[in-house]
Sequence to fold (516 residues):
Amino acid sequence: MAATRIYVPRETSAVSVGADEVALQIAREAKRTKTSIRLVRNGSWGATWLEPLVEVEVDGARIAYGNVAPADVAGLFSADFVSGGDHPRRLGPIDEIPYLINQDRWTFWRCGLIEPLSLDDFLRHQGFRALEKAFAEGSEAVVDAVVESGLRGRGGAGFPTGIKWRTVSETAGEQKYIACNADEGDSGTFSDRMLMEGDPLGLIESMAIAGFAVGASKGYIYLRSEYPLTLSILSRALDVARDGGWLGTDIQGSGFDFDIELHLGAGSYVCGEETAMLESLEGKKGIVRYKPPLPAHEGLFGKPTVVNNVVTLASVANILNHGGERYASMGMNRSKGTLAFQLAGNVKRGGLVEKAFGVSLRELIDDWGGGTASGRPVKAVQVGGPLGAYLTAGQLDIKLDYEAFVEIGAMIGHGGIVVFDDTANMAQQARFAMEFCAIESCGKCTPCRIGSTRGVEVIDRIIAGENREENYDLLVELCDTMEAASLCAMGGMTPYPVRSVLKNFAEDFASSGDDR
Ligand SMILES: Cc1cc2nc3c(=O)[nH]c(=O)nc-3n(C[C@H](O)[C@H](O)[C@H](O)COP(=O)(O)O)c2cc1C
Ligand code: SF4
Fold:
């Protein structure tokens, strides 16, 4: 009889709640009970609130068991879970779980489904088909499809990806580069990591497509140092791709050469800013560059460079597989396709939800997230990382659309959604925004370097009740200066969360101070 396949994620969020111990326990129990199993370490489906999420393959269906602890394993075997047996942890078939099936999985569709480091499994699930299609149709057709899709950068700024690729492809240069931004420093975000751990070959394929499209033979992945498991998975995936002839010289006899180097960051938030990242990749201090020149013209080592976020790049393979038009048919207005929203903070069912633009925060927080973890009312929601505005409970029905968010002084950024209940002190959050900027500022320009430190002091004075009105005006003026005169969005957008607190939660300044 064939061994039963049992899936236990090897993915950071699952491992952090005991997935490795669960896998070990399953292997031990199978040995003890002489049950023939094959343990597959897959990625996460993104329902982190159910981790460790174990699946058993029975007659082609995958039966899920949620929140499995090592102590549950013996009981699961006794309940014959190897045949899909009943047990309090049993959730039923994975493809019937509402949290997953009600999503629009375009970029993350293979995450959880496949064995990330198996080339065979990847190939069985459409792996490298898009790259072959690119070879068959030519580089211009690839750029056209990406333009047609309306895909915009998922790293933060939402710049149209196709336009960026066209610029690099039309810029003359013997050597060009693809630089994948995997620095993922925004609070409450983990989609890059989940993709790289669950479908690393998918990212590699999309980077090769990008290289082919613009004429680049070399790619870099700039990975944040706080992701050690990702580093190990990605390094092995690069070897798997090379061994299979999908990276290196003359890929699959196409005449196209492309290889990828993995570079580890050193824990600086601002190194996620594209020009600071390029400096860091060149082995220098991660300090922001003046623009122009744009990286598309003079990027890494002065050569034309595509800088894209992990999720942006990983979305491309399916755009080629299904066509740019199909991607553009999802979403609303100029926000096309899907975004991997990441639910974090005070939320009951945290995790990754890939949905077409146009979904509301309320749907995400209530329908997927199940409301706050504390059961208390939502007070504020920060979308788009530490530079994002704090929205009020009254703003939750606004549809997620880049432009609609800009209109209310907010941003979608990388899709991180951090929920706060009514016990949160928003004056402290405003202080945190300034303090974060003071700590992470690269120091190149004065409004950010000095302004953020002064900003913390002014907020402290407001909280302490010192000349409150005068200091309040000073803070607004300081925000104006930072916004207008900072060199990059670090100093330029730190005022967003601060202003949103001044506007929406001003009463917290009066009642703050003690709980810092
Ligand atoms: C302070 C700061 C930090 C940033 N951090 C990241 C990051 O961690 N990951 C990322 O992809 N983009 C980050 N960005 C945005 C990048 O500068 C750049 O816009 C992005 O990598 C371009 O890729 P995309 O067009 O695919 O989004 C950051 C920007 C700023 C100003
Ligand atoms: S705004 Fe801040 S992070 Fe950006 S260049 Fe100026 S000092 Fe550096």
Q: What stands out?
A: The longest helix spans residues 446-464. The chain is about 40% helix and 15% strand. The first strand starts at residue 4 and ends at 7.
